[in-house]
Automatic annotation (TrEMBL):
It comes from Streptomyces shaanxiensis. InterPro entries: DUF4232. It comes from the Bacteria. The keyword Signal applies. Residues 17-57 have a biased composition (Low complexity). Keywords: Signal. This is DUF4232 domain-containing protein. The keyword rRNA processing does not apply. Residues 74-198 form the DUF4232 domain. Residues 1-19 form the signal peptide.
Amino acid sequence: MTAVALLGLVAACGSGADAGGAVRPPAGTSSGTATADTGSPASEPGTTEPGSTGPGTADTGSPVTQSAAAAPRCHTSELRAKIGRPSPGAGQRNFPIVLTNTTDRTCTVRGYPGAAFVDASGEQLGPDPKRSPDTPTSVSLAPGRSAWAGLSFASPEISGARTAEPDALLVTPPDERNPLEVAWTHGEVPVAGNESSVRLTVFQPGTGG
């Protein structure tokens, strides 16, 4: 594993950004990496940076609640991850990062995921994502239920950013250290230059549909 990958493997924080406002996602695979769901895509995520075009609304039909302080935190080993269908708009590409509870107990997620694009060797591509100024809330996941967070970036062909095509996206649940690896099949992402920032929103109930 490269030095970059080792330095990137930190826990996703549930309540806010660090002094630089950046997410500190894992940057490489580890023996604790869980299995991700690469099945059918979900719908687009919600709001992003003020002034940008955000994705769709949350799934209001899910019986997931946002008041669940008593439920224990969801651990990486109890979750399945997938990336939903892209939602282009006004120079933006938007995706939902969906986490699903695979256990028979209720657990909660709160705040932002950790996220890192990596190549086939596990080396991180581009800087750490930034966090949109959202207010985290606890999302309770009954068995089989999901929560989603938005991932968005400016379309590279419009922004002129330098790009790379990732092999996978590493997703770390809030307050966890081990990532879930999800195959990335959505083409190139910005890694440097103008408008190269990738942004994340907080988790909300549902799948982003």
